[in-house]
């Protein structure tokens, strides 16, 4: 996508339901986006792996190849295009599966087209600001983050991260040594107002692995503060909140 006010986002919509597809295309084209619609998983996979789009809307249940397979394949070969999953599967377990597979956001059907467009705009904003040539890495203690390749390393060994985990780690490294509240982290990483009922942050703290990776770079108080929010038992730790 071209930077600046005249930028036009190129969206790939992988959706087999024609009514939903028409809603997506109509809403996004009305906002100035260019949209390519693909109606089956096989063709959607080919287009997504071409890495030619700024953002993708991906139906969870598709003919030929399902959306989750498309997503996991994209991430396994290094395609990091932001993906908004759209699905009638609204159970928490299904949302978690989609996010852990590499989805950047998840919206259940039926959805409001304006909300869908707003979520895509959030995903696009995250990727608009390219790092300067003089500031392409973050280093905190034994952790190193390459802002160009979006790879993370600890003591020289690569840490394999999902897209949202990468953003969590980047935010923590940019704010190393400072107290990071749950609200601050949620709004910085997900880009919209914190909902106290959400479990999005916990979804992306897989078995507290992310906490283990960043623990060494954080001050003692910050570490305790974060643990109070994100450890599985910490929800009952009123003294740390």
From TrEMBL:
<dbReference type="InterPro" id="IPR001789">
    <property type="entry name" value="Sig_transdc_resp-reg_receiver"/>
</dbReference>
<dbReference type="InterPro" id="IPR011006">
    <property type="entry name" value="CheY-like_superfamily"/>
</dbReference>
<dbReference type="GO" id="GO:0005829">
    <property type="term" value="C:cytosol"/>
</dbReference>
<feature type="modified residue" description="4-aspartylphosphate">
    <location>
        <position position="59"/>
    </location>
</feature>
<dbReference type="GO" id="GO:0000976">
    <property type="term" value="F:transcription cis-regulatory region binding"/>
</dbReference>
<protein>
    <submittedName>
        <fullName>Two-component system response regulator</fullName>
    </submittedName>
</protein>
<feature type="domain" description="OmpR/PhoB-type">
    <location>
        <begin position="135"/>
        <end position="233"/>
    </location>
</feature>
<feature type="domain" description="Response regulatory">
    <location>
        <begin position="10"/>
        <end position="124"/>
    </location>
</feature>
<dbReference type="GO" id="GO:0006355">
    <property type="term" value="P:regulation of DNA-templated transcription"/>
</dbReference>
<keyword id="KW-0597">Phosphoprotein</keyword>
<dbReference type="Pfam" id="PF00072">
    <property type="entry name" value="Response_reg"/>
</dbReference>
<dbReference type="InterPro" id="IPR001867">
    <property type="entry name" value="OmpR/PhoB-type_DNA-bd"/>
</dbReference>
<dbReference type="Pfam" id="PF00486">
    <property type="entry name" value="Trans_reg_C"/>
</dbReference>
<keyword id="KW-0238">DNA-binding</keyword>
<dbReference type="GO" id="GO:0000156">
    <property type="term" value="F:phosphorelay response regulator activity"/>
</dbReference>
<dbReference type="InterPro" id="IPR036388">
    <property type="entry name" value="WH-like_DNA-bd_sf"/>
</dbReference>
<dbReference type="InterPro" id="IPR039420">
    <property type="entry name" value="WalR-like"/>
</dbReference>
<dbReference type="GO" id="GO:0032993">
    <property type="term" value="C:protein-DNA complex"/>
</dbReference>
<feature type="DNA-binding region" description="OmpR/PhoB-type">
    <location>
        <begin position="135"/>
        <end position="233"/>
    </location>
</feature>
């Amino acid at each position: 996508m071209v930077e600046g006010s005249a930028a036009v986002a190129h969206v790939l919509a992988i959706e087999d339901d024609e009514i939903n597809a028409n809603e997506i295309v109509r809403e996004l084209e009305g906002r100035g986006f260019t949209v390519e619609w693909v109606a089956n998983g096989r063709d959607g996979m080919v287009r997504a792996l071409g890495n030619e789009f700024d953002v993708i809307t991906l139906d969870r249940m598709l003919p030929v190849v399902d959306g989750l397979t498309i997503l996991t394949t994209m991430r396994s070969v290094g395609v990091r295009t932001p993906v908004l999953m759209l699905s009638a599967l609204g159970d928490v377990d299904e949302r978690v599966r989609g996010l852990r597979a590499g989805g950047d956001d998840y919206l259940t059907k039926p959805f409001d087209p304006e909300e869908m467009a707003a979520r895509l705009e959030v995903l696009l904003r995250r990727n608009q600001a390219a790092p300067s040539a003089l500031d392409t890495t973050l280093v905190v203690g034994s952790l190193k983050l390459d802002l160009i390749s979006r790879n993370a390393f600890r003591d020289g060994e690569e840490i394999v991260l999902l897209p949202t985990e990468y953003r969590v780690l980047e935010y923590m490294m940019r704010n190393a040594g400072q107290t990071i509240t749950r609200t601050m982290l949620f709004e910085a990483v997900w880009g919209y107002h914190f909902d106290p009922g959400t479990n999005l942050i916990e979804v992306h703290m897989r078995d507290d692995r992310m906490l283990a990776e960043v623990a060494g770079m954080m001050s003692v108080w910050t570490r305790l503060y974060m643990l109070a929010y994100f450890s599985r038992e910490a929800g009952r730790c009123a003294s740390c909140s």
